[in-house]
Amino acid sequence: MLAPVVALVLWTFVMWGWMYATRLPAMRRARMRPDPDAPRGQQMSELPARVRWKADNYNHLMEMPTLFYATALTLALTGPAQATDVALAWAYVALRIAHSAFQALVNRIEVRFALFVLSSLALFALAARAALRLV
Length: 135
Hints:
- With 135 residues, the chain is mostly helical.
- The chain is 76% helix and 0% strand.
- It has one domain: Membrane associated eicosanoid/glutathione metabolism-like domain (Four Helix Bundle (Hemerythrin (Met), subunit A), Up-down Bundle), CATH 1.20.120.
- The longest helix is centred in the N-terminal third of the chain and has 28 residues, at 2-29.
């Protein structure tokens, strides 16, 4: 049950690296100097959209996946892993990676939304199974 957790953490670091690998060169090309007095996000909004997409996705990996981490760890701590739980966890991770790829490369909102909904359904099923285990 812990392997999908570690996989998503590692994927988050992939997105972190990708974000900086695109953002820093774009900042240099734009001759941008970080301004601590600029309103949050103002300077980054001046970068090309394809550069911002990676940072947007990295931020998304700090949102809903936190519920995944809590749920997966709850399941890991409350008993032996069940095949359905592991399959749901891997499905969630695979869908989040697909979501990252679409957002970072293409950013077709319809596809991203479908992937987000599917991953959310997998997470909901996993959370429901955790709740039933605790009852």
